[in-house]
Amino acid sequence: MASQLAFKSRIASTESLRKIFNAQEMIASSRIAKARGVALAAKPFSDAIFDAVRALAAHTHINHPILGKSEKNPRVAVLALTADRGMAGAYTSSIIRETETLLNRLEAEGKKPELFVYGRRGVSYYKYRNREVAGTWEGESEAPSVEMAARISQTLFDTYMAPASKGGVSEFYIVFTEFVNMVVQKVRILRMLPVEVKILSGEDDALAGLDAAEPQEINQPSQDAQAVSQSSKSDQKQVKASPLYSFEPSASEVLDNILPKYVQSRVHECLLTAAASETASRQNAMHTATDNARKLVDELTRKLNASRQASITQELTEIVGSADALKTEIE
Predict the structure, then answer these.
(1) Once rounded to an integer, what is the mean pLDDT over residues 245-266?
(2) What is the pTM of this model?
(3) Which is nearest to 52 in space by CA: 272, 270, 254?
């Protein structure tokens, strides 16, 4: 059994670590509400500009990089959002694992991914392994600013808009952690560019089904009834009709001005939700570490008491044995 001095030293060091973990947990708890509020407040604006861009792309017939590049280019940009500090559990390792999976999948498809990393932990990981990184950013992972989002989005926007002969890319992915709640944070892969256009199919068939499902009267309806029926059908078709857009001065110039704002808005949203996820992960990790340190202190204290009791028992045994030996000699 270890000495009492060793147990006391381990108890003191573990207790010191427990205080540090508890302090980190309290700091994360004080920041999570603000980080979550900022992330949730930014989401409606990002969703609105995404819906607007997707609607424009779906209902316009133009050639624009926002819908995809015409030239064949195997280069693909991948941005991984990691943390600047540790003590956040498996937050950074989960992002790196998902990033490696994405890179391997893109390479299997014959593409050439170019990696961009945000966060000191991710930069250190790839630098230690001598992996080539196209661009890095550090700082503000817990509270990203608009300026940081602008710098990242501008670099990636320029990379996407550049032609293949000048090192441009044809696609742009972001790997980040989505904040679901205080307990659940999911790693997501978002393809930001080109915009994925989802056109609702089956609207004409649905209208045809509604028209065919209407009951047919045996008697000939009056002219007023026919007018009302035709107006109701036309209203239904107008609801399902695609919107019409008028662009001034032109659709290409409008999209050229929208695209940088779209990229910056989506990047900023991903940075904010990643910051909220990092803070929540750190709080959960520090809470678990505090509980484990407390349990370890209790276990070491029991072992220390057992060691002290064994030492006392041994001393008593030696005293009793010595007394018996002296008594035997006297007799």
Answers:
(1) 79
(2) 0.73
(3) 254
